[in-house]
Write a structure and sequence with these properties.
Blueprint lengths: L6 H7 L25 H8 L14 H14 L3 E5 L2 H10 L7 E5 L4 H13 L3 E5 L5 H5 L6 E7 L11 H10 L4 E4 L4 H4 L9 E5 L13 E5 L13 H4 L10 H5 L3 H14 L5 H12 L1 H20 L4 E5 L9 H7 L7 E6 L3 H9 L5 E2 L9 E3 L11 H6 L7 E4 L5 H12 L3
Parallel strand pairs: 2-3, 2-4, 4-5, 5-6, 10-11
Antiparallel strand pairs: 1-7, 6-7, 8-9, 9-12, 11-12
Helix pairs in contact: 1-3, 3-12
Length: 427
């Protein structure tokens, strides 16, 4: 699709391009397998000598067309879908890391990502050094080791709402000859395109704003195509040396800028199988078609709610990067001038237990283990998503024990505020 189109048009038109007489709406290729006329044709697919489909565990046309849409929205060269955001973050790191390697990880990433890298991947022999994303360059530089293979962070941290200084992190990661991987779930490509600031790889939990309706769990990985894997040779040997499981193919030589996503698809998806169902991808595509309409409304509503909370005497603090007094307001204006996200966090006077009691009295906003869909929802991370952390670890992750994560939906903002107001009457 022409790069000249606006992002709004790409939300609608990218991915599926029907030819004369074909169906207008993205088709669901609900099949596990694909027929070929000769054995030789099938063999070429298994040798990566020919493009095509042979088993949906690796690739499926519906999935690929939705991945292409997300790729175009982010401005990358190649993308793949996964069955969840967790799978996307795992594949993104594991595609270039193995036992004995090291990762620099932002302390404020989503609790599930934090656990993935510091607990599960530690069992695989991959070590992490945790850094405060607000640290100065000198401090961040000390986190790197000879075996560091990547840096992992979030554009807007979930739920700490820390806005990443892309240029600082890109400069440091590239100085140490490693890629920067950024989870762009909260900002979405509507509000932020990290590749424009030098980020190398972007991940998404498509479960959130991209789906937008809490219907389907999913994830995505997009590669900018700009990191020069060949330049560092043996350091990224999984991409630059022969893969014996494919008769010695060297991904960087055979697939060029698409080497990273090709390897993740034909190797990791082949062996680990976290593929989304075609039906889920079809539903995701429907969500993407209205992403450019929903995200501005989320942000508009969130700012109204955050400003109202700031004026309420029962509220101890409010954190939203769109507020002028916020610590990250200037960074948000620099990297996300059209808005950040629809998620705000706040605490109530009286501490943790008061916050929990308040949530129990909400009527419109639902307590759910979810965030970033059309309906307003609420969560207490210390009791839910970050429950495994003690108070010290919570603070290191930017999650105060009394923090309420409030995901503002696209309902009428006055109705959302009225719901908060009535719940506050009980505390």
């Amino acid at each position: 699709m022409s790069k000249g189109y606006s992002i709004e048009t790409k939300c609608i038109q990218s991915g599926w391009h029907p030819k004369n007489g074909e169906v207008r709406v993205l088709p669901i290729y609900q099949s596990t397998t694909y027929k070929y006329e000769t054995s030789d044709e099938m063999g070429k697919l298994f040798d990566l000598e020919q493009e095509g489909y042979f088993y949906t565990r690796l690739q499926n046309p519906t999935n690929d067309m939705v991945a292409q849409k997300i790729c175009e929205l982010e401005g990358g060269v190649a993308a793949m879908l996964t069955s969840s955001g967790q799978a996307a973050n795992y594949y993104a790191v594991f595609n270039i890391c193995e036992a004995g390697d090291h990762v620099v990880l932002s302390s404020t990433v989503y609790g599930g990502t934090f656990n993935l890298l510091t607990v599960t991947m530690k069992k695989m022999g991959i070590q992490c050094t945790i850094v405060d994303p607000d640290s100065d360059e000198e401090t961040l530089n000390k986190a790197f080791q000879d075996n560091t293979k990547c840096v992992v962070a979030e554009s807007i941290a979930n739920p700490a709402l820390v806005v990443l200084d892309f240029e600082k992190f890109v400069k440091i990661a590239h100085a140490h000859e490693v890629p920067l991987i950024v989870d762009n779930t909260f900002a979405t490509p509507i509000n932020c395109r990290p590749f424009e600031y030098g980020v190398d790889i972007v991940t998404h939990s498509t479960t959130k704003y991209m789906d937008g309706h809490a219907m389907c769990v999913g994830g995505a990985i997009v590669d900018s195509g700009n990191f020069d894997w060949k330049k560092y040779g043996e350091k990224f040997h999984g991409l630059t040396t022969p893969d014996e499981s494919y008769h010695g193919v060297i991904y960087t030589e055979k697939f060029g800028k698409k080497a990273y996503i090709t390897k993740a698809t034909v190797q990791l998806m082949r062996d680990l199988g976290s593929i989304p169902s075609p039906m889920n991808s079809f539903l995701l595509n429907i969500g993407l078609e209205t992403l450019h309409l929903r995200v501005p409304r989320h942000c508009e509503n969130a700012l109204k709610v955050a400003e109202w909370l700031e004026q309420n005497e029962k509220v101890a603090w409010v954190n939203y990067p769109g507020l002028k007094g916020n610590k990250y307001y200037e960074l948000a204006q620099k990297y996300m001038p059209n808005g950040t996200c629809g998620v705000i966090s706040f605490g109530l006077k009286g501490g943790r237990q008061v916050s929990v009691s308040f949530m129990d009295h909400l009527k419109l906003a639902a307590i759910v283990t979810h965030v970033a869909d059309a309906r307003t929802c609420v969560l207490h991370p210390a009791s839910h998503t970050h429950r495994q952390m003690n108070d010290e670890q919570l603070m290191e992750a930017g999650v105060q024990p009394d923090l309420i994560r409030f995901s503002v939906g696209i309902e009428n903002a006055d109705d959302i505020i009225a719901d908060i107001e009535q719940a506050l009457m009980y505390i």
